[in-house]
Design a protein that fits this description.
By secondary structure, the protein is of the alpha+beta class. Strand 17 and strand 18 form a beta hairpin. The radius of gyration is 34 Å and the shape is elongated.
């Protein structure tokens, strides 16, 4: 917006204020309403114009109210009481993420906290004060949304959000824990009804906005920001995923970059390549995450996804990407809870040309899309992978023993890790190798013992198979098999 246009609108607003204020005056005890009005419109009209409008009705009153507010704030700081919720155990903190559908004792404490802090779950019945339950239902979700939007600066702003999600994740849990511990307490504020004077000033504000829109139509002025572009690429840190029934897993991650301008991402479309009818029954839930926090989610069912539609749309986003910066978006899915799964393969991602929509600093709409899809699999029994990790042998790889004494020494320590599925380990083979030494392996090692921590799992005597005459005694290999059932 140009300075000239701003001055024109301001002048018109002042002229109208003289007309509207004729015969009207503030009462001396109207400071609460005056300050509410001042702060509400200061960001939209500017501090100077907001002050001018109020001073034309009652000169000097705003300054007196601001002085009185400063004194009240000092008194409140001196008299601040520690807030303690008696029905939540001392020292309790919310440690686990929760969302609609969750159950347990933490949900009951969540409902108690919301009721005590003024974000009532229910007026009567289940969820009301004294009748808190262990089920996270729609009423709890609604109360959490109100809590998040009341503490938006601490809970939502760090994730670029302006509307509550209803999910109790990192920043929401942190704020709840601070409040139940007696820190940073402020009760929800209910706005007083506006007086006749405030109604007149509301009318003035609407007229100012209308005039500004007309001026913009006549002369768009100079751009308020540079035009920008969006681009999206598939990240490699989420590999092709295998899901079993009722499992939740990250299946794809995409990096969205803003070029030449700040960009606010408002919409993210996820396309699924496969039989959409099956997809609607194979997947129960899909979520979009930024920085590990869910910013949008959608139920997947025949009621929410039309037959033949291959798109899941996440709209109403407010994710800001700084100029020449990026944000990583993660797609998470939850497989349906079923006794049997036929094996299927799906491709997923923002693969259409305009999958992602945002607004640049010039107010123009920008799009990104066409990224490579990521594949995920639905399986009845996911095959597991057994990995050996953290090898640790004696320093320098050498152990010196006394030939005259029977000595037990540590030769190797390692960890076995099962990924993607539970695994039953039946046997473990250990290879022993004798290099550049006279004699045979049994001349140096009598028994090989396998420990799990301090417990003996199995022990095997080391005896060379003398029936095998093909081996070279200078480079002999012996396999020892442990029974680990």
């Amino acid at each position: 917006m140009s300075i000239t246009k701003k001055l024109v609108v301001a002048s018109l607003a002042i002229a109208m204020a003289f007309t509207l204020s004729a015969g009207v005056a503030f009462a001396e005890d109207d400071c609460d309403e005056v300050l509410d009005l001042y702060y509400e419109y200061k960001d939209d009209l500017g501090e100077d114009l907001a002050r001018t409008m109020i001073d034309m009705i009652e000169p000097g009153l705003l300054a007196e109210c601001l002085d009185e507010e400063d004194v009240d704030d000092e008194d409140e700081e001196d008299d601040e009481d520690v807030h303690v919720i008696d029905r939540i155990p001392a020292g309790f903190t919310f440690e686990e993420n929760m969302r609609q559908g969750a159950r347990g004792e933490d949900v009951r404490y969540l409902q108690i906290a919301l009721n005590e802090l003024g974000f009532t779950v229910a007026e009567t019945g289940a969820g009301s004060v004294g009748n808190e339950t262990e089920y996270f239902g729609p009423a709890t979700h609604s109360a959490v949304v109100r809590f998040q939007e009341h503490y938006a600066q601490e809970v939502l702003a760090p994730h670029g959000l302006t509307s509550g999600t209803g999910n109790v994740y990192t920043t929401t849990r942190a704020k709840l824990n601070a409040l139940i511990a007696g820190e940073d307490v402020d009760e929800p504020v209910e706005r007083p009804d506006l007086s006749e004077i405030l109604e007149q000033l509301n009318t003035l504000y609407a007229l100012v906005q209308e005039l500004q829109a007309r001026v913009d139509e006549l002369d768009p002025g100079v751009d308020v920001g540079e035009e920008g572009d969006l681009s999206v690429t598939r990240r490699g840190d989420v590999r092709n995923a295998e899901l079993r029934a009722n499992r939740t897993k990250d299946v794809a991650r995409y990096r969205v970059e803003a070029d030449d301008s700040d960009v606010v991402v408002q919409r993210f479309d996820v396309y699924v390549d496969g039989n959409m009818t099956n997809f609607r029954s194979d997947i129960d839930w899909m979520a979009l995450k930024v920085g590990g926090e869910v910013i949008a989610e959608s139920e997947i069912s025949r009621a929410t996804i039309e037959r033949g539609d291959e798109r899941v749309r996440f709209s109403g986003l407010d994710v800001e990407i700084e100029e020449d910066g990026y944000v990583d978006f993660t797609i998470e899915v939850t497989a349906a809870d079923r006794d049997e799964f036929s094996e299927k393969e799906y491709d997923i991602g923002p693969t259409a040309s305009e999958s992602i929509r945002g607004v640049d600093a010039a107010g123009l709409t920008v799009f990104a899309g066409g990224a490579d899809a990521r594949t995920f699999f639905l399986e009845d029994d996911v095959s597991g992978v057994l990995e050996v990790e953290d090898y640790d042998s004696p320093e320098e790889g050498v152990v010196v023993i006394d030939e005259e004494e029977m000595t037990e020494v540590d030769l190797l320590q390692f960890e076995l890790t099962a990924e993607d599925a539970e695994m039953d380990l039946e046997t473990l083979e250990v290879k022993l190798e004798l290099d550049d030494s006279d004699g045979e392996l049994e001349d140096y090692v009598q028994d090989l013992i396998l420990y799990d921590g301090d417990s003996v799992v199995d022990a095997q005597a080391v005896v060379n198979d003398r029936s095998d005459t093909s081996y070279d005694s200078d480079d002999y290999i012996d396999l020892v098999t442990f029974d680990v059932d």
